[in-house]
C-alpha cells in the first residue's frame, strides 16, 4: 500500500512537472522558435529539476545529506527518461506523423513509469 501512495504522490509531482515541461517546451518551440527536440529537452530538464525537489521533500521525504549525489542519480535517471522521451516523440511524431503534443503525452506516460521505479529503487532506495 505504501508503494501505491508513493506512486500517487510521485504522479502528482509529475503533473506539476508536466505543466513545467509543456509550458517551457511550448514557449521555447512556438514563441522562441527553438528546434523542437531542443525545446523538448529544455522543458524536460527543467521539469526534472522541479520534480527532484518536490519528490525529495514530499514523496520520498528524503533526509539524505548527500543532496548533490542524490540529485545526480535522479538526473541520470531523468536523462535516460529524456532519451526515451525523445525516442517516443520521434517515433510517434516523426515516423507515424501523430500530432507533436499527443506524441509528447504518450512519451510522458511511458517515462513517468520508468522514472518512478528507477528512482524508487536507485535514487531513494526503498
The gist of it:
With 126 residues, this protein is mainly α. It contains 4 helices and no strands.
Give me the secondary-structure topology.
Layout: H1 2-31, H2 36-59, H3 67-95, H4 100-123
Helix pairs in contact: 1-2, 1-4, 2-3, 3-4
| Tally of DSSP helical segments | 4
Number of domains: 1
Mean pLDDT across all amino acids: 94
The radius of gyration over CA amounts to 15 Å
- The parts where pLDDT drops under 50 for at least 5 residues are none
**Total number of beta strands:** 0
Described by the principal axes of the CA atoms, the overall outline is globular
Largest sheet: none
Query: What is the helix fraction of residues, given as a range?
Result: over 70%
Explain how this protein is built.
This protein is mostly helical and 126 residues long. The protein has one domain (2-123). It has four helices and no strands. Helix 1 runs antiparallel to helix 2 (36-59), helix 1 (2-31) crosses helix 4 (100-123) and helix 3 (67-95) packs antiparallel against helix 4. The longest helix is centred in the N-terminal third of the chain and has 30 residues, at 2-31.
Highlighted features:
single chain, 126 residues, globular
